[in-house]
# Entry
Amino acid sequence: MEVLSFEMTPFCENCYVVKDGGEAIVIDPGEASDELLDAVAGSKVVMIFNTHCHIDHAGGNAEMVRATGAPLVCHRADLPLLRGLVQQGAMFGYPVQPSPDPDRFIEEGDEIAVGAVSFKVLHTPGHAPGHVVLVGDGLVIGGDVLFAGSIGRTDLPGGSYEQLLHSIKTKLLPLPDSTIVYSGHGPATTIGAERAGNPFLVGL
# Structure
């Protein structure tokens, strides 16, 4: 398995590509950059996966769907955000193309496969109502839930600080300390490092 990271958009968002056995999943395409398109050109893209549907994570959906023909998935609770991408962009002065509707919705406990690797979907609301993460093979692709030394913001529509901390406590902190966390912004970290040193997690 190979995990590739691409920093994109003015929001410095991390888009990830997970490859295995000639297949690939594109996670959170904030835009369809040439670098991203080149990275998946030799693979069968089996899914475009939105951890949540803020513009910096979903703004490239339309172009990636056109380029790859892959199905788009997100959690049902984030459908209003997905359908409001253009309006989100207007709020930040950042134009984006409307996203197609998802081909299917993902739920807590679903299994996502790429090649021989399988990930479990966990619903982790707080930053966005339909935020989900992928957990498997010693790693978490975590969107905007947990960062190195910080957590996701909760001041956007649908956000909740208490709900985010509950998601982290019940879904992420039970994972082994060695679990690598690939965050939606900034560098990768581990569950152990955040358990020991993240000031937002004191007392959880």
Notes: The chain has a mean pLDDT of 97.
